[in-house]
Amino acid sequence: MKTDVFITGGGIGGLTLALKLVKAGIDVVMVEKLPGKQPVYKGELLQPKSMQIFDGLQVFEEITSQGQIIEVLDLIELSKTLKVKDQSFMDYTVIPGKYNAAYMIHHEVLKGIIRTKAESYSNFHYFSGSSCKSIDGKVATVQKGKEQFDVEASFFIGAEGRASVTRQAMGIKVEPIKYNHHFITVTFPRPTNFVGGQIFSSYNRFLGLFPLPNDEVRSVYLIPAGDYKKIKEKSIDHFHKLYTELAPAIDGYVQKLVDWSKIQLMIPIMYHADTYVSGNMAIIGDAAHAVHPMAGEGMNMAIQDADILGELLVDMYKQQKLNLENLNQYEAVRKERADYLIQLSHLSALAYSFPFQPVSWLRSKTFERMEEDPVLHFKQMLNVSGLGMWKESVRDRFIQGGMMPTRKKELPKEQKEMKLFTAEDDYPWKWRGLR
Ligand SMILES: Cc1cc2nc3c(=O)[nH]c(=O)nc-3n(C[C@H](O)[C@H](O)[C@H](O)COP(=O)(O)OP(=O)(O)OC[C@H]3O[C@@H](n4cnc5c(N)ncnc54)[C@H](O)[C@@H]3O)c2cc1C
Questions:
Q1: CB-ligand 1 contact for 283 (6 Å cutoff)
Q2: pLDDT tens, 237-294?
């Protein structure tokens, strides 16, 4: 079999890339090792930049109609006796323009929307239950049941997540960094009026609640690394109590989970590949980087990689400039952005990693100042949204640390707009040319 672009992995990143390519008439073969739906929870929070990308792919309306809008995240700091001590919020609506909200959507529903759209093009060839075993530069060898087949391609893209066969073929090693905590995560029913994201924390506990459509809520609860087995030995009532002590609003709802069967362990790790491109191969998403889930970026980084690499390949084919050196433009745009978000997520994780009262105090003061200072607030929301990157200055750090007063003046809309990535920032080769 012969194709233009061979993609290993039919996760969100691979599917987004495939859709971009097939829409432009490029022939794509995608292999996905799972025969059906992913049995585990994965990312569900779509940041504004991902929504902008999906708008360009004409799936925005379908996603919003099957997703739950999140405009505000409440950050609730509790006292030792679990009474509300401080409350601040992160508000996506400070971002100007159409894409000023996040959306929660079931991971498999989102995959279904993108895959169905891609399958409406006859140049998309999707093989489920098919695992890529090796890539030798011109040919990928695929195992489907007992059969093996080869696929010849001009480009090989690794979108196969953490255990990436393409990354291996490129000779790239990653060194995962582990954290002192894990999470348990599960979805259960919620009250209909529970529509904003809520993060509850005390000096030694953390619970994130993110509403999904159909009156469901996805939860993440922080536990010390290695404690999962011990916690699971306790009764399910113990689990209910862990949740309702922090978030009384879900009392009567979390109890719909009658045993531990749906409750999943989630182990955060962080790594970043030194390079994303080698010859005619490139990696996107979790194959290239893993990020702590605290800031809800992993799936979004995969989508954003797919957008930049996809646009680049489309232009290379359109202009018939298939020089492999052009692929480096993908890395040039994405690597610095990914690096920044990995660090941002890492810092957010550290804010919840140490079970001490002073850390809890410092965290709530930092969030309070971020909410009070319009520049800090906008920078935070812009950076997590993926729509732009505005790094924190020394002054910002002093304000956050309480060593300088917060600014009071709102940023004008025009100044905010200037901080959004332009098409030239995203796709610089359209201006500078391809080889
Ligand atoms: C429990 C959990 C919760 C998360 N929550 C969030 C969140 O709230 N927000 C967020 O942004 N991110 C979150 N993430 C991270 C997010 O899920 C990932 O960053 C995202 O799925 C990466 O997308 P991807 O397409 O790169 O890889 P994946 O989603 O991992 O997809 C890779 C695909 O490749 C397939 N594959 C692997 N090897 C092969 C092979 N050799 N041949 C063929 N197919 C192969 C796999 O079966 C899989 O379908 C979470 C992750 C987990 C595990």
A1: no
A2: 999 999 999 999 999 999 999 999 999 999 999 999 999 999 999 999 999 999 999 9
What CA–CA distance (Å, rounded) separates 139 from 90? 48
What's the CA gap between 328 and 278, in Å, rounded? Answer: 9
Residue 276 near residue 285, CB atoms below 8 Å = no
Give the distance (Å) from ligand 1 centre to CA of residue 293.
Answer: 12
- Cβ of 19 less than 6 Å from ligand 1: no
Q: Which atom of ligand 1 is nearest to the CA of 9?
A: 34
Answer yes or no: is the C-beta of 73 below 6 A from any ligand 1 atom: no
Index of the ligand 1 atom closest to the CA of residue 264: 1
Nearest residue by C-alpha to atom 42 in ligand 1: 131
Confidence of residue 123 (pLDDT cuts 50, 70, 90): very high
Q: Which CATH number fits domain 180-266: 3.30.9.30, 3.40.630.10, 3.40.50.1010, 3.30.540.10?
A: 3.30.9.30
DSSP letters for 120-189: TSTTEEEEETEEEEEE-SSEEEEEETTEEEEEEEEEEEE---SS-HHHHHTT----PEE-SEEEEEEEEE
Task: Check residue 296 and give its pLDDT.
Answer: 93
Compute, in angstroms, the gap from residue 286 CA to the centroid of ligand 1: 6
| Residue 364: pLDDT over 90 | no
Q: Among the atoms of ligand 1, which is closest to the Cα of residue 299?
A: 11
Span 63-119, pLDDT tens digits: 999 999 999 999 999 999 999 999 999 999 999 999 999 999 999 999 999 999 999
- pLDDT in the model for residue 115: 98
Ligand 1 centroid–CA 65 distance in Å is 23
User: pLDDT tens digits, residue range 174-217?
Assistant: 999 999 999 999 999 999 999 999 999 998 999 999 999 999 99
Q: What is the CATH number of domain 2-66+105-177+269-344?
A: 3.50.50.60
What's the predicted TM-score (pTM) here?
0.97
For the chain, the structural domain boundaries read: 2-66+105-177+269-344, 68-101+354-423, 180-266
Beta-carbon contacts of 405 under 8 Å, excluding residues fewer than 6 positions away, are: 399
Between CA 72 and CA 78, with CA 76 as vertex, the angle to 5 degrees is 175
Q: Which mutation among 16, 40, 42 tests ligand 1's pocket best, with the greatest number of atoms within 8 A of CB?
A: 42
